[in-house]
Specification:
The complex is a heterodimer of chains A (190) and B (275). By secondary structure, chain A is an all-alpha fold. Chain A contains three helices and no strands. The longest helix of chain A is centred in the middle third of the chain and has 136 residues. Chain B has one domain. Helices cover 68% and strands 1% of the residues of chain B. The longest helix of chain B is centred in the C-terminal third of the chain and has 44 residues. The N and C termini of chain B lie far apart (52 Å). In chain B, 37% of the residues are buried. Classes of the chains: A mainly alpha (190), B mainly alpha (275).
Chain lengths: 190, 275
């Protein structure tokens, strides 16, 4: 290969520049420079390939792994957060439902309680009214009977006074008084 | 006359109106005298400025990356951050781009090429260095040969000897008659021309860039003279040299990228038959 190169290059015309008679062409490929070039590359390749680059390759791989691991973990955390959020939302919804139910129940309860209280009040009022009426009736009876008695006594007294003057005079008046008395007695007896 | 000699004497004393022509820089600015020339196993190694810059680049790359990746942390800091950016650029931008997950195995290979080529290109604009080592043709050729002797055996190993050449020479989806034309073209372009274009692309870009900067820099000196045209020309040449230097920074990185990407594409083609 090297010989081919040298042959190709030495065939390039005009490579012997003007005024550079004693100099080799710029397209000449001296074997020593070729060997030096190859050695220079092999040193760089050998040392970097053996010592420097494996370390950085390993580090880059580790970093990729770490980042991918971190991403997986972040995904996991994200999913967990999502799950917790769903749970929270569900709990919130159920709590709302419950609150609504409780409110409805309370509404019903209140209506019932108010109704009951109203009924109770009505009953109590009726009872009070009834008692008052009964008392009034009793008092009226009492008053009536007391009045009857007094009227009777007054009447008897009056009658006595009236009768005392004219009782013998009029048998008819006597009968009337008798009837009145019996009537009174009847009333008193009742 | 080597580059050292040019800088030391000839070019700088010669000016417009002083009776000498424009000392246009040529091939000599890419030639450096050997400071040491040991002979090992019958081969004489010419150790020159570019050789020293080559090994200085090797030392700097190894020093930086060994330091940056000495105890890599999961949370990177400082130089590890920078090194990682380079590593990920090669892995994701070149290796995986060309051959998918399979490319991970070739990251060290491509990584070494990219940073070595880039730094060798970069010497072009470093004060006192000021020569892209990749403009010494033997260096891109050496690199292209390494890539070549990697992907060809790899392709034969992965696909088998005959299928490797068959897949290369008879790409699917072409009318049968076309293979008469296509098969030899594919064989020549892949097996013979490919390493040549791979190395020349890098070499020629860096060579031309350096020559341009050198020409305008020399012109800026040459045109300094007691004339309006000379002064204006000198200032303009200097401005162009500065602009070209900035442009060269982009070209250096781009050529290193292209060289590495092509290496990745060749390897990818060797791993799997082209579709």
């Amino acid at each position: 290969m090297i010989n081919v190169f040298a042959a190709v290059l030495s065939a390039v015309p005009g490579s012997e520049g003007v005024g550079a008679e004693e100099m080799p062409s710029v397209l000449a490929v001296p074997i020593d420079e070729l060997i030096i070039g190859i050695i220079a590359f092999l040193i760089v390749f050998g040392v970097l390939g053996k010592l420097a680059l494996p370390a950085i390759k390993k580090t880059l791989a580790e970093r990729t792994e770490l980042i991918e691991g971190g991403l997986a973990k972040a995904d996991e955390t994200q999913a967990e957060a999502q799950r917790v959020l769903e749970e929270y939302k569900a709990a919130l919804a159920s709590a709302r439902e419950e609150a609504a139910a409780i409110r409805t129940q309370a509404q019903a309860d209140r209506t019932a309680i108010v109704e009951e209280a109203r009924n109770e009040a009505r009953t109590a009022a009726a009872a009070v009214t009834a008692a008052a009426e009964a008392q009034i009736a009793a008092e009226r009876n009492q008053a009536t009977s007391a009045l009857t008695r007094q009227v009777g006594e007054l009447a008897v007294g009056l009658a006595g006074k009236v009768v005392g003057q004219s009782l013998e005079d009029d048998a008819r008046v006597r009968a009337t008084v008798d009837a009145f008395i019996s009537d009174l007695e009847q009333q008193a007896a009742r | 006359m080597s580059a050292d000699v040019v800088l030391a004497s000839g070019g700088l004393s010669c000016h417009l109106m002083s009776g000498c022509g424009f000392p246009a820089p040529g091939a000599e600015i890419f030639q450096f005298d050997a400071v040491w020339a040991p002979t090992i196993l019958g081969v004489t190694f010419h150790i020159s400025k570019t050789t020293i810059l080559l090994f200085l680049a090797v030392v700097l790359i190894l020093g930086f990356f060994l330091y940056a990746f000495r105890r890599p942390k999961l949370v990177p800091r400082g130089s590890q951050n920078v090194g990682e950016m380079g590593y990920l650029f090669i892995r994701d931008g070149i290796a995986r781009e060309a051959m998918g997950k399979e490319g991970d195995k070739f990251v060290p290979f491509l990584f070494s090429f990219f940073f070595l080529v880039w730094l060798l290109n970069f010497w072009s604009i470093v004060p006192f260095a000021q020569i892209p080592v990749t403009s010494i043709f033997a260096i891109p050729v050496a690199f292209a040969i390494i890539v070549y002797v990697t992907w060809v055996p790899l392709g034969i190993y992965k696909q088998g000897f005959v299928p490797f050449f068959k897949n290369m020479m008879f790409p699917p989806g072409v009318p049968k008659a076309m293979y008469v034309l296509l098969a030899p073209i594919e064989l020549i372009s892949n097996i013979l021309v490919r390493p040549f274009t791979h190395s020349v692309r890098l070499f020629a870009n860096m060579f031309a860039g350096h020559l341009l900067i050198a020409s305008f820099s020399v012109a800026a000196f040459y045109l300094i003279s007691a004339s309006v045209v000379g002064i204006l020309g000198s200032v303009a040449s200097f401005a162009v040299a500065v602009a070209l230097t900035g442009f060269e920074v982009l070209i250096q990185a781009l050529q290193a990228y292209i060289f590495t990407l092509l290496a990745a594409v060749y390897i990818s083609g060797a791993l799997h038959a082209e579709h």
